[in-house]
Write a structure and sequence with these properties.
By secondary structure, the protein is an alpha+beta fold. The chain has three helices and four strands. The chain starts with a strand and ends with a helix.
């Protein structure tokens, strides 16, 4: 199991997640709205309201999910971070892999 952590605008969050689900690149996503992000961009400090996306996939599908997220994302440089959990409930892992058609 792998987690993909990303952020995006509220306007595009549902479309991004739905596309990744439809393509079976992820099995589940949590969309956490109302996040204020502050960051450097092109020499200025910026501030935006964003949605945090926590998406679950298999280690085998992670590269394809990350690549597809990059293709669909509206940001020039989207935050796409893969997290390798130390442990996961075996029943939940089995559900996740079944949801995306992975072994």
């Amino acid at each position: 199991m792998r987690l993909i952590f990303s952020t995006c605008s509220l306007a595009e969050s549902d479309a991004l997640v739905n596309k990744l689900l439809e393509e079976r690149l992820i099995g589940c996503a949590n969309l956490i709205p109302g996040v204020r992000s502050r960051y450097w961009w092109e020499g200025e400090i910026c501030s935006d309201e964003e949605v945090v996306l926590l998406m679950e996939t298999s280690s085998e599908r992670m590269p394809a999910a990350m690549q597809r997220l990059r293709e669909l994302h509206s940001y020039d440089v989207p935050k796409i971070i893969a997290i390798d959990p130390d442990s996961c409930d075996p029943d939940y892992r089995a559900w996740l892999l079944g949801a995306i058609g992975a072994r």
